[in-house]
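Lab notebook, page 48
Experiment: co-folding of the full assembly
Goal: obtain a model of how the components sit together before planning crosslinking
Operator: M.T.
Materials (sequences as entered):
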Amino acid sequence: METYIIKRDGKKELFTIDKIKNAISKAFLAVGAFATEETLGAILSHLRVRNEVTVEEIQNQVEVALMAEGYYQVAKAFILYRQGHTEDRETQRRLDFMMNYVQASNAAEGSKFDANANVEHKNIATLIGELPKQGFIRLNRRLLTERIKEMYGKELSDRYMNLLNQHFIYKNDETNLANYCASITMYPWLIGGTKSIGGNATPPHNLKSFCGGFINMVFMVSSMLSGACATPEFLMYMNYFIEQEFGDDYYKRADEVVDLSKKRRTIDKIITDCFQQVVYSLNQPSGARNFQSVFWNISYYDRYYFQSLFEHFRFPNGEAPHWDSLNWLQKRFMNWFNEERLRCVLTFPVETMALLAENGDIKDKEYGDFTAEMYAKGHSFFTYVSDNADSLSSCCRLRNAITDNSFSYTLGAGGISTGSKSVLTINLNRAIQYAVRNNIPYQAYIEDVVDLMHKVQLAYNENLKNLQEKGMLPLFDAGYINIGRQYLTIGVNGLVEAAEFLGIEIKDSPEYAHFVQELLGIIEKKNKEYRTKDVMFNCEMIPAENVGVKHAKWDKEDGYVVPRDCYNSYFYIVEDKSLNVLDRFRLHGRQYIEHLTGGSALHCNLEEHLSQEQYRQLLRVAAIEGCNYFTFNIPNTVCNDCGHIDKRYLKECPHCHSKNVDYLTRVIGYMKRVSNFSEARQKEAAQRYYAEPSKAPKCVCE
Amino acid sequence: MKVASFDIVFQEIPGEVTLALNLSNCPCHCPGCHSQHLAQDIGEPVTEALLDSLTGRYKGLITCVAFMGGDAAPDEVVKWAEYVRPLKTAWYSGRTIMPKDEKAFDYVKLGPYIESLGGLKSPTTNQRLYKREDDDWIDITNSFWKKNLAD
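Observation: model returned without errors.
Model output:
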């Protein structure tokens, strides 16, 4: 019978003794000795070669055989020779990865570790960013497991690695060293410039230095975060500097020419030029972030939110912010941004409108109407609706309780400083299927895994504290981020898929609501149990930009039931056409999101824009159903031939009539070209059900 | 009169969030009809209980109920339209004349589907959508022909 060996690439090859002899002879030569046939024979007699033995196994046997025969120097040379080859193979792997990346159709597809569409083009700068990612993953795992061992013992650390390797849990953003995302207060910058975070800029003192300084400050802050940087005070501060320059009533005199240069600019033109400078600069690829642009978010507030958040705020001149001028500036910025997006694909800022609800409607009628007007004008942004101005969503994904709306002269407004230090996600579909297969009550199994996740997060937190103690986290020390207001986040993915596996129909029903509440309730219970005065946890349905794709792929490979190529980031099945728009709002309403303390976003996909009255009614729907975070997503059309951008979802360019068009849609938080998504994401985007407004039979007789 | 299916629609009645009831047993048999299955006698009979359950499910969320078809039993359409008040009501009819009880509806679409002229979205359509303002019917068909969002 012939004997085969298994090579490193998994291929089988007929076993021959010559290759081993050759390798051993080389090892002898390496130490200046010569192996005779007799010597070789003695060494080879130790080997036990069975069919389908691996190359590694044979080499291990050779090492032992050399030592057993007393050739210690040769054994050492052989070991070094193997190590050399291992390093070669590692380099070869990197080289292969590099060639794959270079040849991939777009940057998201080429990235092996972190397929993120927030990169417009691939080039040498993005490639440089990709190469060390695998190293970061190893480093982060080592840092974390060492700490877990120290705090909870080796057994827990091993279990964590097992669950991670078997894809029960997923550590988000392992390719970066920095903590995740933050909504910052800019007050320390307003008072002290960027010196406290390692820069050299003095505080902004006029509109021009505000705009320039703001851009630099956001770049600096973003380079110390792995995720988004939200600046919820951006427009409020800008308003202050405009007032300083042109008077508190500037917005009533917006058409006044105030520029003595040949351009004769009006106040309005000067302001929109500032918008342009900031927005275009921050949409540039950033060198410090491997050619990704910074991930920048801003907020708008209705009158009540504004009062609640900033009533105690004071600018350096002792004045409180003025609502009337800020109200004008918010509307001006939003309208400007909407129109500017017809000229250029501008991804950032991701905007959130914060509205207070009362008695099933938006309390501030002016802002309810304005929000509806902006949606009807085709603008794409998020809306956050809450019954109390006690929570705020300042990120495209993160909802935070405002426990503190105080103002301090060193830290600024307390309510807006927040964020997530780290996200660790449970793959509910796999966990539940595994429990069911093994006859474990799935509730108990989930609780067990979630308990471990909390310990892992606490270990992460210790590492972060350690970095802070060594002065490595100036954003915290300088007060841009308040570490006590930052969450450790338990993410969930595969919830819908898990329910489907259990035979629960995904629609508004007592059964499905019970399933969701029970499951998320387990996580919330643990969040409360592990909460201390220093550490807070929240739970979020993560926007599964690439995790949803990865989980589906891994679970499928391991034989789990996988109904689609990308796990949902919603409480409903994206491609389910039987659910209408109102059903979707209900499925993201209060009884489903109750335990989702970190939030989730309903992306209401529509094929056509609605009218202002219709959007206004949907704001009421959100208030009635308790759906607190949502956006409307109508793919915008970009012509690949003439560059024309249209806010509608069209098959043909209305300008040059080319059919070579691409679409802009939301990946998760931000608008990007569909062709920049990774392949699996593109597939998901194509399957999204954009509620076709005219799909009701065109009337019986139409 | 039977409801074959229902949906929440936005384009059919401008400015409203509409519960559209697709009525079966259509007598029109227009050539090229998009919903030929509605010519059959299918679905659930319209009853107070059925309407209560649908409007109850979307209470506060919808602003209008539209009866799509039902030309075989116009009196019944009127009766049920009056039943769902105070919600706004609409009738998508294939007939060419206004119903007698005009005040039962806030919107009425008239006209059969003629393939060569197209539906409401086609500028050459024979169909008309009217909106009632007090005692007057205003033709708002042109709201379907918007070229831009700003229009």
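Interpretation: Helices of chain B lie at 48-57, 74-83.
Next step: discuss with group before ordering constructs.
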